[in-house]
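Quick one - inputs below.
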Amino acid sequence: MRTPIAYFLMLAGILFAMGTVGVLINRNALRIFMSVELQLNAVNLTLVSFARLHNDLGGQVLAFFSMVVAAAEVVVGLAIIVSIYRRRRTIDVDAAREMRW
Amino acid sequence: MVGALVPHVAGSLWLIPALPLAGATITLFAGNRLGKWAGILATVLVFASFGVSLAVVLNLLTYPGESRLALQHLFDWISVGGFRVGADLRLDTLSATMILVITGIGALIHLYSVGYMAEDPRQGRFFAYMNLFVFFMLMLVLGANYLVLYLGWEGVGLCSYLLIGFWYTVPGNAEAAKKAFITTRIGDTLMLVGLALLVFKFGTLDFEVIFGTAGSVLTKDAATVIALLLFAGAIGKSAQLPLQVWLPDAMAGPTPVSALIHAATMVTAGVYLVVRSHVLFEISGVALTVVLVVGVVTALFAATCAIAQFDIKRVLAYSTISQLGYMFIAVGMRAYGVAMFFLVAHACYKALMFLGAGSVIHGMHDEQDMRQMGGLRRAMPWTFATFTIGGLAQAGVPPLAGFFAKDALLEVANHTGREVVFVLGTIAAFLTAFYIGRMICMTFLGRTRSDAAEHAHESQPVMLAPLVLLAIGVVVVGILQLSPDGAVTQALEPVVGATALGAGLSVPALIGMAVAVALLSLALAWWIYGSGRVDTVAFRERLEPMATAAQRGWYVDRAYDVVIVQPAKALARLTSDVFDALVIDGAVNGIGGLVKRSASEGKLLQTGFVRTYALVLFFGAVLVLGFIGVRG
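Output:
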């Protein structure tokens, strides 16, 4: 007997919620970043689950895409964080708020 | 329908307009570097064009009357669906008459200009415009359809504008050029509407098709509308009432320009247009009456103005308007041959008089006021002699060309039972002879009235040669038309048909009367202005305010200013200062202000806190998903 799809979706939901809360409550850019990764992986899990449910490999392919894009995004994001740190010796996101009007 | 093609002639038709076009192109780009060679080049090319024209026309005349038609298809100009217009040239006896006048007199005027413009630093440009004018004028008369004609029609208008304003640094010249262009545009626009109607009715603009099928295609009313619209174009170009106001002001241009464009050729394009389209006018009938009335009124009106002018060129300008009125009288009476002969004769003697006036102005160091002249016959004998021949021709003294033209016209009027036209035409002839006499007396006879006149000098031979040649032309050209059915009329008969003449006064009686009127009028003019027995200043003062009114063209200009120009300017001010400033600019500025204000408020939404944005994004996503969930 197969594990019901609902379990996977619930797990993914919990992971996503944890990621979201992590993004919203953390001020450390690296921790926000890790939370974003959590969200992405929650979505990947959903994709794979539905692929399995519908017997359609498309979902898995999409998950791989999302991983590649996430890796690229991490590279750019980390570079930005490093450069922010070099400039102001902190990676507190609330300190970097010059980008308004 | 006209008979077969004349192939031998047709092949070289394109050369006639191409030569002046080549000249225009060269002088336009290299004219100022060529110096005086620009003028010589331009003159040689127009003479060459005249040579080709003469050869072509002589060849055409070797064919029998009915088959004197040469067509040349150069290329397809417009081809849209079933509507085709070709760049086609057409030579029949009507266009043959015109090209000989244009290239012949044009060549002489070019020659004269070489001398007249010798000291002008921009003479290269001048000759470029002159050659371009000759090209467009030739296209106008050689076109085998209305579109080619219209191309030339607008082209000569452009050249007229450029040449009137040639000395644009002199205040008023540019104004005069604009006035000429805009006034003629009124007529041109109406004419364009007429052409559109022709396309609508016939599906083509080709002369052959239109004139061949007009009888069955057009109703009387349609023909009237089209004919009157075409005539409106003619009114503008030929400076007939009520669009005559531009021609006197057009005298601002160099005098050879006045001779070529505003006397000999362009202003006669209107006459050519009506003669060419006579089929449409005849179907209408009413249109011919309109032509006749406009001609009579203009002939009389302009003659009265000419009497009161002091500027020698303005006398000639009004006299040109008056003479063009005569031509339209002839056209209105269906005497197309007479009208065309009048056109040829007028081109000769009026070009001669303008060039003579130019010679006087040159000799007087740019003085145009006849009150400053007088007694110039001693200093300028050649100019005096040739100018007088031209004047006598226009006054109608036999055996000069003008006499035969005017006499033929009055004979037609009398023999077709148009008594009113005959009487008014005779009165206009009397006035014509009078102002000619006055002009000659004031300019050449009597005592000198100024230092400039005292020190006037005769012009150089290059300017006198065209005067002499034109004077010879004026003397001999009368042979072409000794009576209303003379050589010109007969040659034109295949194109325009014959004029039916009834009975009236006997021909010798008419000739006697015409000569008597002319001589009497000249004698009266001499007695008042030439004999020194009449105090002309007091004489003029006794005629006030009539004299000033006539000098000002009976205040038509001022009436137009009050009725049309000022209201138009007021409307322009209303739209620019009120509508444009408040409504248009208001809308544009309002939108800009709105964006600016909403931006200054809306920018406060940006806090710069990344996590705030993330939260908003999150709730946004939740909202969207929730919406989709509720709906789905």
